[in-house]
Amino acid sequence: MICYILRKKNTVILFGIGFLIGILIEILLVEKDRVGEFYYDFIKGIYPEDEPKVACVVFLKRPHTENLEAAQNTWLTKCDDVFTVRVNRAGKRRTDVEEDTRWIGLPEGEVCTKTRIHNVTAGSSWAGLCKTLHLVKTSPSNWFIFAPDNLLVLVDNLKAYVKPLDWTRDHYYGHAVQHYEADYNVFSAGVLISRGTLLNLVESFREDRCESSGKYWKNEDLYLGKHLRALGVTPKDTRDEEGRGRFHGYNIHALLSPGKLFKQSDYSRKALYPVPEGMNCCSPELITIDATNSDRLYHHYYLIYKLKTNEKPKITPGVNQNDSFDWKDFLRQEGYNETAIENMTSEEYYQIWAKKISPETLYEIMRKEFGSD
Q1: Which spans are transmembrane here (predicted)?
Q2: Which of 22, 179, 223, 251 is such that its CA lies 20 to 30 A from the CA of 263?
Q3: Listed residue (281, 276, 288) closest to 186, CA to CA
Q4: CA nearest neighbour of 331 among 319, 342, 322, 317
């Protein structure tokens, strides 16, 4: 009943706004070759280059919408535009539908909303992605992340990553793997492209060419890589300066536990830029991670965005915490030169302190400070 009242109340307003927006989009968002430089100037005028705007395109992989609901209540709230797509095989033609999903955690309790799901009919997975590219070009966003519904996207980190980049140029990011036809970014880890790349693709593959430019299923990421290579666009290394990955198509449990990652999979065996296992697997600025299901998506989102710790600062025994302490200055006072300081190991540093404070005294200081037994 609540959902019905809310929809009824806003129907006229939404229709009017939608009608006006539709006219504006029809005028402005036509083919790039017809609008030329004006098109780019118009988009730049709306969104300055220092303000990345991200469209999140979610592909439904399951018949139910639990993962979509979880995404709507977590990471999708940080997107500037959202498209929900379900690709159907050509023999299962469907029209776009509105399905009930739930926004959770509002002050009024659970409130329903209607989510538009774009049903794209295609003869191959590439055709489905190609038609989706034409669908999302109506968004004025300057970056587009394509993701399956089980993926958690950290949009804040994504925006920070692309902020220095020129979105009018070609950019293509994700977890890259090798293939004899073309290196490509795997769809399971999410694929990020700039608006410049999107427009080059839709210009090269008009919608009537989508069906003829690919075949088979579950290979849309490979075809995207092939077609982008023909345009001179290839995957780039997205790891941080320590070699830790930003785009992950595996769940965090497999990545953090050495030996859990299936080494024989193409994801690992053919990785163009290998990512280590264990605690050093993932960059602190990671952009995507496989959440597996809706429960874990909520779980991961809570740990990342909601949980706070009150970690006590580490102390150096015998040093007043109200005083600043520079360990290099301490070593200089002990007679060590710069070369020795730079090459000193943690064990050597410990032994220096052990000569000043007995292990028993050091242990007692740490026990009192941190409450250890």
Answers
A1: 12-30
A2: 223
A3: 288
A4: 342
Classify 189 as helix, strand or coil.
Answer: helix
Cα angle 45, 47, 52; round to 5: 155
CATH of residue 218 = 3.90.550
Q: Has residue 101 got a pLDDT over 90?
A: no
Q: How far apart are CA 141 and CA 30, in angstroms?
A: 15
The pair of structure tokens assigned to 153 is 């996207």
Percent above pLDDT 90 for the chain: 35
Domain count, the chain: 2
Tokens describing residue 358: 């007995």
275-289 per-position pLDDT tens digit: 887 888 899 999 999
- Integer angstrom CA distances of residue 250 from 167, 175, 266: 28, 11, 12
Summarised one tens digit per residue, pLDDT across range 74-89 is: 999 999 999 999 988 8
Q: Report H helices in 137-293.
A: 155-162, 195-204, 220-230, 252-256, 266-269
Helices vs. strands in the chain: H and E counts, helices first: 15, 12
DSSP assignment string, 104-157: EEETTEEEEEEEEEEEEEESSHHHHHHHHHHHHTTS--SEEEEEETTEEE-HHH
In a domain, 86, yes or no: yes
* Residue linked to tokens 């139910």: 64
pTM: 0.69
Buried b (16+ CB within 10 A) or exposed e, 204-216: ebeeeebbebbee
Burial class (CB in 10 A: 0-12, 13-18, 19+), 48: exposed
φ/ψ (deg, to 5) at 247: -110, 120
What is the DSSP secondary-structure string of 2-24? HHHHHHHHHHHHHHHHHHHHHHH
Query: Between these two residues, 329 and 86, which has the higher pLDDT value?
Result: 86
Listed residues 273, 306, 339: the one ending a domain: 306
Residues 6+ away with beta carbon under 8 Å from 172: 185, 191, 192, 193, 194, 197, 228, 233, 234, 235, 236
88 and 211, same domain (yes or no): yes
Contact, 205 vs 213, CB < 8 A? Answer: yes
Which amino acid is present at 88? N
